[in-house]
Design goal:
Number of helices: 16
Order of helices and strands: EHEHEHEHEHEHEHHHEEHEHEHEHEHHH
Helix content: 40-55%
Distance between the termini: 49 Å
CATH superfamily of the largest domain: P-loop containing nucleotide triphosphate hydrolases
CATH architecture of the largest domain: 3-Layer(aba) Sandwich
Strand content: 15-25%
Largest sheet: 8 strands, mixed
Length: about 375
Amino acid sequence: MFTTIIIQATPERSPYVRALAADTGLLQLVKEYPSVPNPYEIARMINTSAPEVILIDLGSGDLALHCCSSIKSTDAGMPVIGVGCPPGMMQAAKEAGFTAVLSDSFGTQDLSEAIHSSLVALKGGPEDYMFSFLPSKAGSGASTVVLNTAMALARNHGKRVLVIDADLRSSVLSILLDLKLKNSIQSLLHSMEEIDQFKLRNCTVSVEGVDFLLSSRSLDTRQPGWPQYFQLLNFVRSKYDTILVDLPELVNPASIELVRRSRKVYLVCTTEVPSLRLTQQRSEELSRWGLPDSRYGLLVNRWHPTDPSGPEIAKILGIQVLKQLPNDYPSIRKAQTEGRFVAENTRLGKAYADFARVLAGEAEAPVSKAGSLLSSLFNR
């Protein structure tokens, strides 16, 4: 839940606003003002109460507008939502700096959407240090890519790396690392209201310099919502240089927050036809969630020189191929059998190191161009 302050102007609407704020399940009221505070009180309120969202009743007209302006002067990134706005004040409210404005007849859903859009607009943009990996289908090897890329970033570039295991039902990361968990990412997500450094550390597993928030794959815990992921990212953002996210194959309303915050989303596929076809579907799903095609691309896993080239795959799928990782089954099998990372002196280990170099900003990702092969398979 996000802490909020409610500033009222019309006493008769106060219980209604308070009830709707509670009904959203998103807001925790830390302070309520029965009237519009002066600029000094506003600065003190923000510094002492540290709200994450402020609701202002627009019934007081110009006083409410000046209140919003004062808040923005103190903290330009503060989400401020105006409620109960008369029709003639809509434009003035937007000009005063309100992040969202709701009319007299707003309901719980309207307020929930306003909270979400306001937080995303001001505090939920893409982060340069965050990358997500989305498999085209189960078994594409996304988890293995995440695991070994994280290790290369920590080992070769001295990065503080966090891996977020978002495949809550079918995760294999703990299996690949041969770990038995005491605490999981699920337990952390469901106690976000009380998160602190101790709770984060208690749920984190460190392996060879990489921190992991791993899934227990429990069927008994409820699925988290977008607020839990949103708050988690805002809490850990200053503690790590790089965050890698291992996504499930289907993006949902909760995990879309991880996608939106990512600098780049890597669609992970193999050169098998089912995997390539489903890559197209994953791409369409990302587009429907509003992710521009400049923010995602294709990572071809288990590639062999006899397979179609990157440019050929890009031409067929209409998706930029950002990296090809070689097929090196012996190295993968040895690492998985021993519960460790792929050896860095192997062909695949060197490919992970090259890819990590791109994420670390020391090289530019290759851009795929035109080509032609497999056309007949995708035009059937």
